[in-house]
Design a protein that fits this description.
The complex is a heterodimer.
Chain A: E1 4-7, E2 10-13, E3 19-25, E4 31-38, E5 42-51, E6 54-57, E7 64-66, E8 76-78, E9 87-94, E10 105-106, E11 110-114
Parallel strand pairs in A: 2-11
Antiparallel strand pairs in A: 1-3, 3-8, 4-5, 4-9, 5-6, 7-8, 9-10, 9-11
Chain B: E1 10-14, E2 19-24, E3 32-38, E4 45-51, E5 56-58, E6 62-67, E7 72-77, E8 86-96, E9 99-104, E10 108-113
Parallel strand pairs in B: 1-10
Antiparallel strand pairs in B: 2-7, 3-4, 3-8, 5-6, 6-7, 8-9, 8-10
Classes of the chains: A mainly beta, B mainly beta.
Chain lengths: ~120, ~110
């Protein structure tokens, strides 16, 4: 099994550019989420989805959009990149959005630099 | 880019020692807790979990202790090995209108010397 696959692994953007970070899982998981990881800040939740067609905001949603048209895919869009969005981005999926099924499986991350 | 390991609390141990990593969680309604290990350049990996109706759970070389009175979680690693060197995160599962979200601690870096 591939698990959770993120592309690209590395990306450099200029301020104002837009891009989409891809995330796909092959475990038929209900719940998917995006986190950003910054030094000393741990992992912060950007957006999450509890199933196809359902998304919601996390702790730090500003500047990002998501959609969930299929169970497998959960892309994260940066609308107009800013240097403050320089970070490592992780996509995660869980079997369930409830209770003890929420153990998250993570992708390998996308390291984004905005100049 | 700057490593996510910078600015983190660091625990340095010798190979073969037992390690204890602590975590304070924030929400008394949290019903499930998970410890993750993150090696450099990789995504977090599940180590062990514990439900809020338990106070101790053991795995292979790892034990998690939960003290709900003071909202404290600890991860004990027995006979620590150089391969255990990583950043360790605790996460709490917060129920929210039927759905749950995981909230992560800031992490602790474990350095194991041979």
């Amino acid at each position: 099994n591939a698990g959770v696959t993120q592309t690209p692994k590395f990306q450099v953007l200029k301020t104002g550019q837009s891009m989409t970070l891809q995330c796909a899982q092959d475990m038929n998981h209900e719940y998917m989420s995006w986190y950003r990881q910054d030094p000393g800040m741990g992992l912060r939740l950007i957006h999450y989805s509890v199933g196809a067609g359902i998304t919601d905001q996390g702790e730090v949603p500003n500047g990002y959009n998501v959609s969930r048209s299929t169970t497998e895919d959960f892309p994260l869009r940066l609308l107009s990149a800013a240097p403050s969005q320089t970070s490592v981005y992780f996509c995660a999926s869980s079997y369930s959005a409830r209770g003890t099924g929420t153990e998250a499986f993570f992708g390998q991350g996308t390291r984004l630099t905005v100049v | 880019g700057e490593s996510v390991g910078l600015h983190l609390p660091t625990l340095s141990v010798q190979e073969g020692d037992n390690s204890i990593i602590n975590c304070a969680y924030s929400n008394s309604a949290s019903d499930y807790f998970i410890w993750y290990k993150q090696e450099s350049g990789k995504g977090p990996q599940f180590i062990i979990d514990i439900r809020s109706n338990m106070d101790k759970r053991q795995g292979q070389r790892v034990t998690v202790l939960l003290n709900k009175t003071v909202k404290h979680l600890s991860l004990q690693i027995a006979a620590t090995q150089p391969g255990d060197s990583a950043v360790y995160f605790c996460a709490e599962n917060i129920p929210n209108s039927g759905y749950s979200t995981l909230t992560f601690g800031k992490g602790t870096m474990l350095l194991v010397s041979p």
